Automatic annotation (TrEMBL):
Family matches, as PANTHER family: 2,5-DIAMINO-6-RIBOSYLAMINO-4(3H)-PYRIMIDINONE 5'-PHOSPHATE REDUCTASE, DIHYDROFOLATE REDUCTASE FAMILY PROTEIN (AFU_ORTHOLOGUE AFUA_8G06820)
Pfam families in the cross-refs: RibD_C
Stated name of the protein: Pyrimidine reductase, riboflavin biosynthesis
Domain Bacterial bifunctional deaminase-reductase C-terminal residues, every copy: 27-226
Length: 241
């Protein structure tokens, strides 16, 4: 990769790219998305069709730095999410950085849609849901070792959930979508940084990283870093809370 903003003057090696994404100490929420030139965030319902070596490299680095991955249940199901594993590129990089080899996946679901027997319904996973979700399902997930966090009454209170996670030592959170969860987090002023990879493709597909849903008001974003590799642009934006 080469740095465009700020200009690097030479290609960045793996160590430099990893260091570029080191999060600040304390509470920090960043989101990571890949989209096409026309704004589509998926091809045939999944993001893999937009992927590249550059995107995968940043994906690995971001997961290596975070305390937890935050994802909506619909995205987790569509993309085939499983627990982060120690014997993986992410796990090995986490170990090299002196961090725990794994990190929890935090699934957000208003209806507690995660089911016992799902790939993510294992010890270490968190489920964030609300009080109106099925109590029996929550109990079954708890019996399976899932940490169930009830936040809000009729809908998930993301701000309160992040407060509760921070109290458990989960401060640096990586939101991987989907668009509805990201939109809600941005609307609530909870996202500090957006990491956005632009694939050099036109798809005419999905409505974008916010799912086509307007925010209550536009949110200002400041470009803090832009990398390029094989025509793929990898940007970091600081968002105004």
């Amino acid at each position: 990769m080469r740095g465009l903003v700020p200009p690097s003057g030479s290609r960045l090696d793996d160590t430099a790219v990893t260091e570029a994404y080191r999060p600040p100490d304390g509470r920090f929420v960043r989101a990571n998305f890949v989209h096409a030139l026309d704004g589509a965030s998926s091809v045939d319902g999944v993001s893999a069709g937009l992927g590249s070596d550059a995107d995968q490299r940043v994906f690995t680095v971001l997961r290596a730095w975070c305390d937890a991955v935050l994802v909506g249940h619909g995205t987790a199901a569509a993309e085939g999410y499983g627990p982060l594993e120690a014997d993986s590129d992410v796990g090995r990089l986490r170990t090299a950085l002196g961090r725990p080899a794994t990190a929890p996946v935090v699934v957000v679901s208003k209806r507690a849609s995660l089911s016992p027997g799902d790939r993510l319904a294992v010890p270490g996973t968190w489920l964030v849901t609300c009080g109106s979700s099925d109590a029996d399902r929550r109990a079954a997930l708890t019996d399976a070792g899932v940490r169930v966090l009830v936040s809000g009454d009729d809908d998930v209170d993301l701000a309160a959930a992040l407060d509760a996670l921070a109290a458990e030592g989960i401060e640096s959170v990586l939101c991987e979508g989907g668009p509805s969860l990201f939109r809600d987090a941005v609307a609530a002023g909870l996202v500090d940084e957006l990491c956005l990879t632009t694939a050099p493709l036109l798809t005419g597909g999905a409505p974008g990283v916010l799912g086509g849903n307007a925010l209550p008001a536009p949110v200002q974003a400041r470009l803090v870093q832009l990398l390029e590799e094989d025509g793929v642009l990898v940007a970091r934006y600081a968002l105004t809370r």
